[in-house]
Amino acid sequence: MTIDWKKIICLICVLALFAGSAGEAFGVRPVAAKTAEQGSSSDIYEEFRAVWVAYYDFGTSHYTNAADFTKYVNEIFDNAVALGMNAVVVHVRPFSDAMYKSAYFPWSFYASGKQGVDPGYDPLAIMVEEAHERGLKLHAWLNPYRITPKYTLTEEEKTATPLMQKTLLAKRLLSKKNPARKWLSNKKTSDDRRVIAYQAQLYYNPAIAEVRKLIVNGVREIVENYDVDGIHFDDYFYPAFTKETYQTIFDAPEYNAYVKKRTEAGKSVMPIEKWRKNNVNTLVKEVYSAIKSIDPDCIFGISPGGFIDYYHDDYFRWYVDYETWMSKPGYIDYICPQLYWSFNTQNTYPYYETLLKWEDALTCDSVKLYVGLPAYKMNTKSSVSSSWGYDSEWYNQFTLANMITMARDTGKTDGFIFFDYADMVADRNKDALGHVMKLWD
C-alpha cells in the first residue's frame, strides 16, 4: 500500500489548527510563527506585507485639490504602516483610465469625478511620494483588458446592431480621450474588433497586437515617469465563458482567422484554449520585458484567482497559464493567488491544501510566491464554496493569523497581500488584525 504523506500532513495540520478554530470558545492561541532566530527557511523580516487599495477605496467625494487628496492618502498609508504593512498595491487603472497624467488613457473618474477631466493634480505622484516617505513600497495596480464596469443597456442600445451597440456604449460611458471610444468612433472598420462587448461589459480584445501595444505602452509610461516599485495585474484577463459558447464568442473571429492562415500555410494549429492562453502570455512577457528595459529593480506580479484546478479543467474560462509563469523566467517576478477560502474542508478549495498546490507549481527560482488573504470575509456570513452553508471560521479571530503561520511554516511563501484596505481598518476586524500584527513582532 502506498502512503500519501502529503494528505496525512494536511490532515495533521488542519487538526492542529482546530485549536485556533475553537479559539474564541476555549481561549487557545494559534501555533506560533517561526522566527529568523529559530531557523526559519526564510527571513520573515523581509517578507512582503501589503494591502490592496482598490479604486472604490478612493471614495465618491472625488477630491478637488491636491491638499485634500494628500490628506486622504496620508490616512490610508498611515493606517497601512500601523497595520505592519511594508507595501501598498494601489489601483491606478481600473477601467481603461489613469490615476496619473497619461499619454494613452484618460483621467479616471476616481480622480476627478468624470472620466477625462483633469483633477488639477497628479494622484499617482502624490501616492508615490507619500508612500516612500513612510517606508512603504508602492505597486501600481492595473486591469489590462477591462474597459467598463457592468452596465445596463438603454432602449436604443438594446435594439442596435452589435457594432452600433458598442459605439453607443462607448459614447455614453467613455471619455472622448479613451482609446476604446476612439477605435469605435473612427471610420476605420479594422479598429472595430479591438473592443468587445460581453455580458454587459466592454473589454479590449486580447487577440489583437494593437491592443497589446496600448497596454504595454501604458505600463511603460508609468515606469518611466514614476518611481513605482512594482506593476501589478489582478485576476481580470479573459472573462468566464461557458462550454456551450466558448468556441464561438468573444475573440473567436480572430481565432478562426488564425486557423485559416495557419492551415493554408500547412502549419499546425493550437486549440482555442491554448491560443487564448498564448495571447495572455504574449502580453505578460511583453509587459515584463518593457518594465525591465526601463528599471530592472521594478518588479512585476500577477494575482490570479486561487482556484488552481479550474485552470486545467475549465478550458472555457480565464486562460491563466500560471504553470508557465511559475516555471519559466521572463514572465513575472511574483505570483499572488487569491486564497479566499478558510481551512474548512467543505470548501472546494480549502486554504491549506490549495496553498500546497500553488507551492508545488513554483519551480522557477526567480519567481516569488505571495498569498492573497481575504480580510473582507472576516466577521461576515460568508458561505463555503459548496452547499454546506455559512462558514463559522470567518468568525474565529485567529483565522487570518493561522493562515499566515501555516504559509510561513512551509518555508515557500514570501509574503502576503490583504484584500481590501477598507476591511483592514473596519472596526469589526480589530481583534483579527490584532492577532495578525502580533506575528510581525
pLDDT averaged over residues: 90
- CATH superfamily caption of the largest domain: Glycosidases
β-strand percent reads 5-15%
Radius of gyration: 23 Å
Q: Classify the fold: give the CATH topology of the largest domain.
A: TIM Barrel
Task: Give a written overview of the molecule.
With 441 residues, the chain is an alpha/beta fold. The chain folds into 2 domains: 5-159 and 206-438, Glycosidases (TIM Barrel, Alpha-Beta Barrel); 160-205, no CATH class. It has 18 helices and 10 strands. Strands 1-2-3-6-7-8-9-10 form an 8-stranded parallel β-barrel, surrounded by 5 helices. β1, α4 and β2 form a beta-alpha-beta unit. α4 (66-82) packs parallel to α6 (123-133), α15 packs parallel to α16 (399-410) and α16 packs parallel to α18. The chain starts with a helix and ends with a helix. The model is unreliable at 5-9 and 14-45 (pLDDT under 50).
Key phrases:
two-stranded antiparallel ribbon; 2 domains; 18 helices; globular; 441 residues; 10 strands; single chain; alpha/beta; TIM Barrel
In short:
With 441 residues, this protein is α/β, with parallel strands linked by helices. 39% of the residues lie in helices and 11% in strands. Strand 1, helix 4 and strand 2 (87-93) form a beta-alpha-beta unit.
